[in-house]
TrEMBL record:
One of its GO terms (molecular function) is metal ion binding. Keywords: Cytoplasm, Iron, Metal-binding. This is Iron-sulfur cluster repair protein YtfE. The keyword Iron applies. GO terms for cellular component: cytoplasm. The gene is ytfE. It is found in: Cytoplasm. Residues 86-232 form the Hemerythrin-like domain. PANTHER family: IRON-SULFUR CLUSTER REPAIR PROTEIN YTFE. The lineage of its organism: Bacteria, Pseudomonadati, Bacteroidota, Flavobacteriia, Flavobacteriales.
Length: 240
C-alpha cells in the first residue's frame, strides 16, 4: 500500500481506465496533472489517502471484460482513435453547446450574470481547441504515424521541421493545461454543473452537456499526455 502512495495518478488511469471514475469523483485531475502522486494530490486536496486507495483497489479488483486497454494499442491506431473519436466529438458538440449557452444568456442572463462568463470561456475553449487539433492532425500525428511505419519497415525516419517530437508535444501539453484550467473555472462558475433552483430544463441540459464535454476532454487529454506523447518520445529515441 505504501508504494501505491508514490504512484502517479496518470499511471493508475493508464493501466486501468476505470480508475478515472474514482479520480473524477474526488475532483482529481488525472490528465493535465497526471504526473502527481497519490500522496501529493491527497495532501493538497485534503483527501484521506487510505480511503482513496481503497476505492481504487475496489475498481482494480472488479472483473470487467469490456475495459479497453489503450496502453497496449499501436501509436498510429491510438492517434487515429483520438482524432476520429475525441476531435470529432469537440467539433460536433461545441456547436450545440454554444447555441444552448446563447439561449441561456438571453433568457436567464439578467438573473444569472455568470452565464455570460461561462459562455465567453466556452467560446474561447472551442476556438483554441480548433487550432490545437489542427496542429495535431496536420503536424504531430502524421509524424508519429511515420515513425511507426518506419519502424515496421526498418527504415530511417525523415527529420521533421520542428526538430525533436518533444517540441510540439511540449506545446500541446501546455495547451492542454490551459484548457484544463479554463474548464476548472467553468466548473466552479456552474457550481459543478448544478443548475440553480430557478433553472429550466434547458438550463439543466446545457450544464449536463458541459459536464460531458469536460469528461470527454479529460479522457482525450489523458490518452495524449499519459500514453501517446510519452511513447512517441521513446519511439523517436530508437531512431537515434
Amino acid at each position: 500500500m505504501e508504494n501505491l502512495r508514490d504512484k502517479t495518478v496518470g499511471s493508475f488511469v493508464t493501466e486501468d481506465f476505470r480508475t478515472a471514475a474514482v479520480f473524477t469523483k474526488y475532483k482529481i485531475d488525472f490528465c493535465c496533472k497526471g504526473g502527481k502522486t497519490i500522496n501529493e494530490v491527497c495532501l493538497k486536496q485534503g483527501i484521506d489517502t487510505r480511503v482513496l486507495l481503497k476505492k481504487l483497489n475496489e475498481v482494480l479488483l472488479a472483473e470487467d471484460s469490456n475495459v479497453i486497454d489503450f496502453n497496449s494499442w499501436p501509436l498510429d491506431l491510438l492517434a487515429d482513435y483520438i482524432e476520429k473519436t475525441h476531435h470529432r466529438y469537440v467539433v460536433d458538440k461545441s456547436v450545440i453547446i454554444m447555441q444552448f449557452l446563447n439561449k441561456l444568456c438571453n433568457v436567464h442572463g439578467g438573473r444569472h450574470e455568470e452565464l455570460f462568463k461561462i459562455n465567453e470561456l466556452f467560446n474561447q475553449c472551442v476556438t483554441e481547441l480548433s487550432q490545437h487539433m489542427k496542429k495535431e492532425e496536420q503536424v504531430l500525428f502524421p509524424f508519429i504515424k511515420n515513425m511507426v511505419k518506419a519502424k515496421e519497415r526498418d527504415e530511417a525516419v525523415l527529420q521533421p521541421p520542428f526538430g525533436s517530437v518533444a517540441n510540439p508535444i511540449a506545446m500541446m501539453t501546455h495547451e492542454h493545461e490551459v484548457e484544463g484550467e479554463r474548464f476548472n473555472e467553468i466548473s466552479n462558475l456552474t457550481n459543478n454543473y448544478t443548475a440553480p433552483a430557478d433553472g429550466c430544463t434547458t438550463y439543466k441540459v446545457t450544464f449536463a452537456m458541459l459536464r460531458e464535454f469536460e469528461e470527454n476532454l479529460h479522457t482525450h487529454i489523458h490518452l495524449e499526455n499519459n500514453i501517446l506523447f510519452p511513447k512517441a518520445v521513446i519511439l523517436e529515441k530508437e531512431f537515434s
